[in-house]
Amino acid sequence: MIGHAERAARFAADDARAHWHDQALWWVRAKRDKAASAVPDWERLRGLASAIKAHTQSRLADYLEEFERNATAAGARVHWARDAEEHNAIVHRILADRGATRLVKSKSMLTEECHLNPYLEARGIEVVDTDLGERIVQLAHEPPSHIVLPAIHRKKEEIGELFHHKLGTAAGLSDPKVLTEAARGHLRERFMRAQAGLTGVNFAVAETGHVVVCTNEGNADMGTSLPPIHIACMGVEKLVPRLADLAVFLRLLARSATGQPTTTYTTHFLGPLRGGELHIVVVDNGRSRLLADETFRRALHCIRCGACMNTCPVFRRSGGYSYAYTIPGPIGSVLAPSVDPRAHASLPFASSLCGSCDDVCPVRIPLHDQLLARRRDAARAGLLSSGKRLGMRLAGMVLRSGFLYLLASRLGKLLGRALPRRILYGRWNVWGRQRELPPLPRESFRDLYRQHRSERRG
Amino acid sequence: MDSRSEILKRLRAAAPPPAPLPDPRSETVPYADPLAQLEAALQAVAAVPVRVAGVAALPEAVAAVVAQLGATRIASAVPGAAPGTVRPEELADPHELEGLDLAILPGEFGVAENGAIWVNAAALPHRGVFVVTQHLALVLPAREVVTDMHAAYARIAALPRSYGLFIAGPSKTADIEQALVIGAHGARSCTVFLVG
Ligand code: SF4
């Protein structure tokens, strides 16, 4: 089976693009650092966020009931979906019952997870993603490659080309301003003729029944204030107990995502448009299973800021598609194996375990610990490739025996110097494919240590 | 079992042991001059803050912005600011807002920390006027400034429970090679009149 490393190799084959991608994301990471360090109580906020999530998890069912009561009292209708199929069917039924065939969507990773678009399109509904990045990948018939920056893998010239073919703009455009203006006109038309709008949910508040949606473009607001029907789709984990909790999460979210102090529009929906309808679809789709898992339940704290992707040295150099899962990067590699351990067995290895993701995660998910635990699970379930299995067994043997270790290090030093490159960097050396091995030191640590000790004694 | 009961049952069975709910209030030191901080934060989110000496001076300040934008179709929900040429409350259908040049709306309070202004959108004749309009102006009494988001939610909790939003500057996007472009779907500019 093809794994992350093989897919990453395809992305990395275009060296210039891989570097460009790396730089683009590093720039976002740097902006995040600046924003985070400008908040004096940043670490305290992260602790609070994590504690609020942990508390909410322990009483999630109660809070969902409270949320439902309050949202319903304000005029919303709350639907419940066990899985992706049921979610899609509910959304379709709402639209079909009202004869709506034109839907505008604002960014929602949950609907990506459920593959809602093809489901609706197969049933004769026109679905338009309205976030600019999402629209770009939709026109290109691609999924998003990043949860916050869906088209981060595309160059502006390619977007100009795409718009030329799909939107009829002049050939050869590449100015982001001009391209955005073209998209604005195109999408405004879609907003005007839409019969329903669908949004994701960033946060839902039990105490009041609000659902909160954060965007910079205002597409969630356009899509829910013109057509009379608003469908908001949320995973069960989006809940927070109180309005006051939003302060903690909103101070963290945009700063972690893009380095902005806040998103442009932070809309608190409560009840429908005058004369309209608000439907809230609450989705489980594997989340209760994850909650039951002591080791991995903290992964449900994720607020989808994307910071762990931007900082991950593997993600930056391998691209979102190499993960072959809706949520890529460190958090995706933790989540994917709970959906299908076999198909996603290689993802936990797409990490240097440097721990940078832990450091940036605003809700303090212990990502690298969880990745390590996923590796152990994959190994126990016998899901490692034969090469990796053999390598691990060998390494285990060598590291357990003082004699073998000594022998291996002596041999390695000798061979590393003596062997011609052709052999040293042969097919068998997966580590040597994209990188040079570090120069071998003249003296080993063991030699140095011995020498140091005898000097001190002498 | 129906989906609702089944999901709730699964979540109850999976729930981790009780964990306390912490007090989310802030420990940040208030700004020495919150209004000045709000102005700086507004600029940082690409909004244009305009100080206005008092209510009496507001029409003139607004007129200057109207002239500068060349706006002719104007909706005003702030009676003292400008008369307005379009009356949204008379429009039956929000689609008729299309083509609006400028909407002038009242803000409840501003957040010094991040330049966000709370707008009680339930009071608007059409919910989406702030985003359908080409340009947006918010009118905020200069004393209505809170330090940070914690203080903001304390204010919101004291208001009647309703639909509302924070607006921080004009609509923007950075989806094409991370280049910041102002004016994605919503307002292309956001002027904030700080009155008094
Ligand atoms: S795991 Fe943490 S850093 Fe990664 S997207 Fe989720 S909240 Fe952000």
What does the main sheet of chain B amount to? Answer: 5 strands, parallel
Query: Helical content of chain A, roughly?
Result: 40-55%
Number of helices of chain A: 22
Number of strands of chain B: 11
Explain briefly what this protein structure is.
Chain A is an alpha/beta fold and 458 residues long.
List the helices and strands and how they pair.
The complex is a heterodimer of chains A (458) and B (196).
Chain A: H1 4-12, H2 15-37, H3 42-58, H4 60-73, E1 76-81, H5 84-97, E2 102-105, H6 109-114, H7 116-121, E3 126-129, H8 132-139, H9 156-166, H10 176-193, E4 196-199, E5 203-205, E6 211-215, H11 219-225, E7 229-235, E8 239-240, H12 243-257, E9 265-269, E10 277-283, H13 287-291, H14 307-311, H15 313-318, H16 329-339, H17 356-360, H18 367-380, H19 386-400, H20 402-418, H21 421-424, H22 445-457
Parallel strand pairs in A: 1-10, 2-3, 2-4, 4-7, 5-8, 7-10
Antiparallel strand pairs in A: 5-6, 6-9
Helix pairs in contact in A: 2-12, 3-12, 9-10, 16-18, 19-20
Chain B: H1 3-14, H2 34-44, E1 48-52, H3 58-69, E2 74-76, E3 102-106, E4 109-111, E5 117-119, H4 129-132, E6 135-141, E7 145-146, H5 149-158, E8 164-167, E9 172-173, E10 181-182, E11 190-195
Parallel strand pairs in B: 1-11, 2-3, 3-6, 4-7, 6-11
Antiparallel strand pairs in B: 4-5, 5-8, 9-10
Residues 256, 302-308, 331, 360-363, 365 of chain A line the site of iron/sulfur cluster (SF4).
